Amino acid sequence: MKIIAILLSLIGLLLTLAPAFLHFFGQISWNTHAQLMLAGMILWFVFAPIWYFKKT
Amino acid sequence: MPKQSRLISRLDALYEFDREPVSQEKLQGFGNFLGLYAGEHVAGTEFVIGPLFVAHGVSAPDLFLGLIVGNILAVLSWAFYCAPIAVKTRLTLYWQLRKICGPYINFVYSIVNAVMFCFLAGAMIAVSATAVGLPLKMPMPTLQDTYPTSISWVLVVILVGAVVTLLAIYGFEKISQFARVCIPWMFLVFVACGVAVLPKLGCHSFGDFWRVANEKIWTGVPMAGQSKFTFWHVMFFAWFCNMAMHIGLADLSLLRYAKKWTYGFASAAGMFLGHFIAWIASGILCAAAVGEVAPGPIAYLGAGVAGAVCVVIAGWTTANPTLYRAGLALQVVTPNWKRWKMTLIAGAITTLAALFPALVMKLLEFVSIYGLVLMPMGVVIFIDLMILPKLGLKSNYAETFNKPINVAAGVAWLVTLSVCLFLNLRLNIQVFFLGAFGIVLTFSLYLLGSLLTQKRRV
Predict the structure, then answer these.
(1) Enclosing domain of residue B313
(2) Is residue B165 within 8 Å of B323, Cβ to Cβ?
(3) Cβ–Cβ gap B188/A13 under 8 Å
(4) Which residue numbers of B have CB closer than 8 Å to A's CBs?
(5) What is the value of pTM for the model shown?
(6) pLDDT digits (tens, 9 = 90+) for B273-304
(7) What is the end-to-end Cα distance of chain A in Å, rounded?
(8) What CATH number should be reported for the domain holding residue B359?
(9) Least CA distance to A46: which residue of chain B?
(10) Residue A2 phi/psi, 5° resolution?
(11) B59 forms bridges with which residues in the sheet?
């Protein structure tokens, strides 16, 4: 469960940053970039607390 | 046990060694401080400060060089000045001051300190409110607004203030945990916002960045009605915007939990993620938003809903430790009251202050004054603990000699502030440049005052 949570939260971080660069290089529209960032945010805040809080 | 009593008992159990040195088992690791500093300085206010540099016409070379030098000086101040004292005494600033200055000066200082912290946390709450109000179509405050602009603004600020206060009451460790979860995501949102709006400014490759930075972002030309900022403004602001925390030693309250003094270098996470990359990113956003400064809308421009949520969380993670400090400060002046009660009062004052948009719109001036007002007592502690013993004089004057007031410390504080006020009002020296002069003046006055006071007693 912990490994899955780490993996999904890291995908969340990837979805937070990568779309901005894809938009910067003209590969995706601003709307797609914003939607992917929203998905990344949800993934991060759903799955990161599972392993972040376990660690402390 | 009645429900209310149980609640109070649970809240009372949150007592965190506020009035005695932190015990060994409560010390925290380096990672905790990295998270705390990054969380505190990757904050909602970064969305305001970055745009203000753009408004003041800083050129791109001045901005980058000024931020690098100023932030290095700030990290060195935490590492070589604040952290060694924190691990030596393991006391909060307030209890240390009480030993040195006595209860009367401590009382005045604690009130001033708490009010300043409340205003700072208030600015964070107002910043968060600009994002929470976005879906409500709330009218955003502008640079010229002083008073609340609408009913929706008032309601949103009260809501945000209530949540932030509850989180601060919950305690330092919980706040730190909350900040740690948010940091990586928040930082990436800042970067993403800046990168995503670059095409709006005509920048489509990394090779274009420096040209666009010079021509369209940090042009070197101030906006109408704004003064011109140079390298020196940027450097001194970057160094002294947290002067209350490092030179003023407010961060004794946090760094007293550090295992080693070297944990002061953890402040670099806050300086270079928050006060470098985030200020640059928000400056880019401001240029792309053509003069808009309200943090919620400019973050939305960069990242949509995720950007707006980032502003809310960035405001919370900064306001929480600030309210925690305010609670500690107020606790000293009411020795029999628990911290949670004082944090609740501080939260109410903070929320009231946040209703006034001027708090955010005059943030550069407020932050500089805030540091200047609190800095002298940090210098007093430094001299008392680090210099006086080497001169054969006693530390902790009020406690050692059983005196209710340390006149030398009181005079050093008041004279420093009076002279700085005179220089600012009469000679028009900008507040950003008064910090360095104030340090030297307080140092000289307290050293001289201690020599006179203690030699007379020997």
Answers:
(1) 28-372
(2) yes
(3) yes
(4) 177, 180-181, 184-185, 188-189, 191-193, 195-196, 198-199, 204-205, 303-307, 309
(5) 0.86
(6) 999 999 999 999 999 987 677 888 889 999 99
(7) 17
(8) 1.10.4160.10
(9) B181
(10) -65, -40
(11) B219
Interatomic CA distance for residues B398 and B438, integer angstroms: 24
Whose tokens are 């009231």? That residue is: B352
CA distance B414 to B456: 22
- Of residues B438 and B169, more confidently modeled: B438
For tokens 């905790």, the residue is: B32
Between the alpha carbon of residue B67 and those of residues A6, B61, B191, B250, B278, the distances in Å are 34, 10, 17, 22, 11
Residue written as tokens 């502003």? B311
Would B430 be classed as within a structural domain?
A: no
Distance from CA of B409 to the nearest CA of A (A): 41
Contact A42/B at CB under 8 A: no
Q: Domains in chain B: how many in total?
A: 1
The helix/strand/coil state of B258 is: strand
Cβ atoms of B437 and B420 closer than 8 Å: yes
Q: Is the pLDDT of residue A10 over 60?
A: yes
- The Cα–Cα gap between B201 and B289 comes to 10
Average pLDDT over residues A13-39: 96
H/E segment holding residue B72:
helix B60-77
Contact yes or no for A30 and B196 at CB 8 A: yes
Residue B435 domain flag: no
Lowest mean pLDDT among B171-175, B216-220, B240-244, B318-322: B171-175
Does residue A14 sit at the B interface (CB-CB below 8 Å)? no
How far off is chain B from A40, nearest CA to CA, in Å?
9
Chain B nearest-CA distance from A1, in A, is 18
Please check whether residue B13 lies inside any domain of the structure.
Answer: no
Q: Which residues does residue B258 pair with via DSSP β-bridges, in sequence order?
A: B28
